[in-house]
Amino acid sequence: MIAQHFPILIVVLPLLASPLALLLRRSEAAWLLSLAVSWLLPFIALSLVRQTAGGEVISYAVGGWPPPIGIEYRIDSLSAFVMLLVSGVSALVVTFARSSVADEIPASRRAGFYAAYMVGLAGLLGMAASGDAFNIFVFMEISSLSSYVLIAIGRDRRALSASYRYLIMGTIGATFYVLGIGLLYAMTGTLNLADLAERLPAVENTRPVLAAFGFIVVGLSLKLALFPLHVWLPNAYAYAPSTASAFLASTATKVAIYLLLRFIFSVFGIDFSFKAVPLEPILLALSIGAILVASLVAMFQQNVKRMLAYSSIAQIGFITLGIAIANMDGMTGAIVHLFNHAVIKGALFLLVGCVVFRLHSAQLEDMAGIGTKMPVTMTAFAICGLAMVGAPGTAGFISKWFLAVGAADQGRWWLVGLMMVGSLLTLVYMARVLEIAFFRPPSPRLEKVTEAPLQLLLPALALSAATIWFGIDTTGSAGFAQQAAAALLGLPPGGQ
Amino acid sequence: MTEMLGLVNHWIAVILLVAGLYIVVARGNMVKKLVGLAIFQSTVYLLYLTPGKVLGASPPILSEAFETYSNPLPQVLILTAIVVGIATQALGLALVVRINEAYGSIEEDEVQRQDDAA
User: Fold this and answer.
1) ipTM of the complex in this document
2) A238: closest CA among A162, A314, A296?
3) A360 in helix, strand or coil?
């Protein structure tokens, strides 16, 4: 049966597609290959989600070596959920890629772009699938190296320095992570996550384990751009090609957050993370800082992609806030916001990609009056913007509702107030774009601009529609997140 | 004193860690920053390999003459980590080459100044 090999296939298929794409050399052929692989993966992920839905855990022994001797791929409902998210968003982004990549990337580098994209996809899926701490490090570096390439590959020279800065900070993050893993290995003699969780309590209060916790959390925080470790992110997203921005913004940081959840709750355990280490006040303060500071900075950006990048940092703050709250509703909010933010931000970056395709600029001043020329794109942008704010009926509302309920449950009404302030700031910077797009007289630059071609528009609209879909039918996203949150907190499914 | 000497590898690791990180932060030259990064990453190698060696044990080659063996796994892991480090350095240096082509400088301040002017 091929189905029993799904856990490894979902990683190996894009990994194999990458050198093939490079060998094909012609960008059309490389795109078709990437498209075929990318559309296959969500179905594999969906099958994994189905298999794990009842709380079952799939254990796959890589190379036939039984764990803990060999590397184990361990897929539970949360990792299957993350894999479905990554592969689903990526399928739409690759569909979008053809015209956008042809427009933004020199012909000689296009096949290389698809090759790097496939490696990055394999790395992200591998991070979610693997149950081996060192294997996760390798996949983390695979996906990071590919994202440095994806950012630097375009024509904008500022992307080069952005990519260089990301490389420095990303490598420091990954090295911190692997130092922490090394200390854990020295203390427990295992790299298997499930084994680590079993053996850690015996050595819990030793200095190496405390140091390991610090190294791992700080390393992952660098990767997920937790304020104030976010400085690599804005330029990297702003100057990367549109396709790369959409892919990285919606998936890369999310998988890092998944790993943070995995280590805080599954490996170290909630008792250690929140009682032996003062993680909660630190995470809480940094999350609030992220929400307020990044939203304020976003309000003053002149480049719409840079604005969306700062918005990402703020939204990541919302997710980590849910982790810091650490009760059933807060965790559900964090996981469902991880999902919803990926969908919304992916849609927004694709829509901006449509604008850049026609306008060849992402500066807000050049977008004056563009609403009359590209009505469909900008209307969808308005809807996704509202979803980002958290308007009822959109996906953003669901996640912020859970977060607010989680905070209110603990009697922290001031936190609910701060979330409202954060959402209002989001409204301000989103409304600023819409004001410029719809209510300013069209600039002369816009004369030849028309609506984006369908090939770009359709994937972007599909993701935009998803932001409404997941705001109304929440069984798929919130229902699943609840289950995953219960599993992480060690509660019975659906129970309090 | 003997305890201090027993941990000599760890002391070196800590010094390398801090020195590497300091170079990355304090230097503006992009190649020097990458050198700092390499020093920083080498901490990992030392930290993994040190506890893998068991005193008085033989290398992990199965033989009837020996009973205790050193742990071979850290060496395999570090082989992988070295490969990852090389890939990172290669990509970083390639980026510096292209930055030099695009900006005519590899000093961070100068690149930043040109970006701000644009």
Assistant:
1) 0.93
2) A162
3) coil
Residue of B nearest to A179 (CA): B44
pLDDT at A495: 46
Let me know if A450 is exposed, middle or buried by CB neighbors in 10 A (0-12, 13-18, 19+). Answer: exposed
B118 touching chain A per CB within 8 A:
yes
Cβ contacts below 8 Å, chain A against chain B, sum to: 73
Which H helix or E strand runs over A59?
strand A58-61
Tokens linked to B77: 């892991």
CB contact B103 to A (< 8 Å): yes
Global pTM value: 0.92
What pLDDT band is residue A493 in, cutting at 50, 70 and 90?
Answer: low
Which residue on chain A is closest to B94 by alpha carbon? A164
Asked if the Cβ–Cβ distance from B33 to A168 is below 8 Å, we say yes
SS (H, E, C) A254-318: HHHHHHHHHHHHHHCCHHHHHHHCCHHHHHHHHHHHHHHHHHHHHCCCCEHHHHHHHHHHHHHHH
Judge whether B78 is closer than 8 Å to chain A, CB to CB. no
pLDDT at A494 over 60: no
| Residue for token pair 């700031």 | A425
A179 closest CB neighbour out of B47, B111, B115: B47
Asked if the Cβ–Cβ distance from A141 to B87 is below 8 Å, we say yes
Distance from CA of A171 to the nearest CA of B (A): 8
Q: Spell out a b/e string for B71-80, using b for 16 or more CB atoms within 10 Å of the CB, else e.
A: bebbbebbee
Residue A247 contacts residue A150 (beta carbons within 8 Å): yes
> Distance between CA atoms of B9 and B5, rounded to whole angstroms?
9
For an interface test with A, give the residue of B32, B69, B84 to mutate (most A CBs within 10 A): B84
